[in-house]
Amino acid sequence: MEFRFFEIYRSSEYLLLLAKGAGVSASLAIGGGLVGFLLATLLAVSRYAEVPVLGRISAAYVEFIRNTPLIVQLFFVAFGLPLLLGYSWPFWAHALLALTLNFSAYFAEILRAGFSSIPSGQLEAGAALGIRKATIFRKVVFPQAVAAMYPSLNSQFIFLFLTTGVIAEIGVTDLTHAGLYIDSRTFRSFEIFTALTVIYIVMALSFKALLNAIYRSAFKWRTVR
Amino acid sequence: MSATPKISVRNVAKTYGHMTVLERVNLEVEEGAFCTIVGASGCGKSTFLRMLLSQETPSSGRIELDGAPLPGEPTPDRGIVFQKYSVFSHLTVEDNLILAREFERSRLLGRSFGKGRKAARAEINDTLEKIGLGAARLKYPAQLSGGMQQRLAIAQALLKRPKVLLLDEPFGALDPGIRADMHELLLGLWEELAMTVFMVTHDIREAFKLGTRILVFDKIRHDPQAPDAYGATITYDLPLNRKDAGPPPELAGLAVNADTSTGASA
Ligand SMILES: Nc1ncnc2c1ncn2[C@@H]1O[C@H](COP(=O)(O)OP(=O)(O)OP(=O)(O)O)[C@@H](O)[C@H]1O
Ligand SMILES: [Mg+2]
Fold first, then answer.
1. Please, what are the domains in chain B?
2. Residue ranges of the domains in chain A?
């Protein structure tokens, strides 16, 4: 058996496909991560604050998402719901919605743990100063919880990013899709999947480094001594 | 000086479920007093302070402030310093005070405007200088020594110019040398701001050094079959003369006990 990595690298068409695919994967992961984080905040807050009906719905939602496979959620959003609601979006939009819903449940669970981990003394100190509950939450609990849970959020995001390859299944031209396409054209499976592995590792480590840099600048108080 | 006491506590009891923490607490405190509070761990001293702050409500009995029922929630005229977690670890010294101050404004005006903000900043700088934290304005609590952190907590409590200051073992975690400095600072502020102070401490010497009056909390009734059935109350209530070297004879034994319990709990 003879491996020919050059067959991929020599072809500018393939390189471009991989680069574009990496861009699509990164964009959808970042988009899903950001919107998912916002949604997760709402979910976690409604549970933490024990908002009557909403809190329970959030809890059920989080359990539902965390106990079903991403690919089923994806197919549901891409093929199931459109039949019911009559929408037809581009593939990437279906993927973004599915990823957002999926990320939000995992982030919500982490955030909720973070909120509960804030010492009650911090809440009492706020209340003693006459600060309203909502303000204490916004200015004390939330920032402290996000900082405390940042490492978990960080690694959860990386993990979720690595699962995004399944969006290739609904036709989104992400990195995995590019790999599968090149493989089907060249039959150079070893070379192409080696390349894919390396690209995913580089991207995951870059995300990690970026998120750590954000941590250091956004949460200076955790790193100063 | 008016005839109404600053604080009066009438037959107050506090229970949590089946557990009676405090019972039959009666007290009248004149304006400007410095009451130190001592008592065994878990006897309800912090609970008592939290009731004075309106963070807890008595299960029965009444507390009055200036002759009127205590407001139902913390108000700017009462400040508190907790033993720990009083300062916000994610905010700089200055931002800790800004957060402490902004609430009143936002309650009254919706938002603090440019002018109000400037005045607030001036007041904050003033307080920081007074309490010796001027140079640490932009530092985070983690970068401060224990003494500086408690100074910040005191600054936070003083920002609203309270007439009643509640201190819950504020110096428990500090070295003796730093404690002495903090005592000077506190007594200076107490005189300057004409506050009525309640201070819980486990250090009986501190209680005698600082107080104009000492309150001892203890259980007088005890049922060995049901340890939670009876609560603590004020068993000694004595005026103090700061010139006196040490505790009066009736409290000499207590002083020894309190000292050992401090050593054990530290
Ligand atoms: N919110 C609460 N719910 C139930 N029990 C409580 C609550 N707060 C305090 N207690 C109980 O009330 C008792 C008195 O507590 P408190 O904190 O007032 O004691 P303390 O005298 O301040 O003790 P220490 O010297 O150790 O600080 C304790 O047994 C405590 O467990
Ligand atoms: Mg206590």
1. 7-77+162-260 (3.40.50.300)
2. 11-219
- The residue type of B153 is A
The C-alpha of B264 sits at a distance from chain A's nearest C-alpha, in angstroms, of: 23
Name the pTM for this structure.
Answer: 0.83
The atom number, within ligand 1, closest to the CA of B56 reads 1
**CA within 13 Å, CB half, A214:** 12
Structure ipTM over 0.85, yes or no: no
Kindly report, residue by residue over A13-69, the tens digit of the pLDDT.
999 999 999 999 999 999 999 999 999 999 999 999 999 999 999 999 999 999 999
CATH topology of domain A11-219: MetI-like fold (1.10.3720)
Mutate to test the interface with A, among B73, B85, B98 (most CBs of A within 10 A): B85
* pLDDT tens for each residue of B62-90: 999 999 999 988 888 899 998 776 799 99
The lowest-confidence range among A6-15, A118-127, A194-203, B149-158 is: A6-15
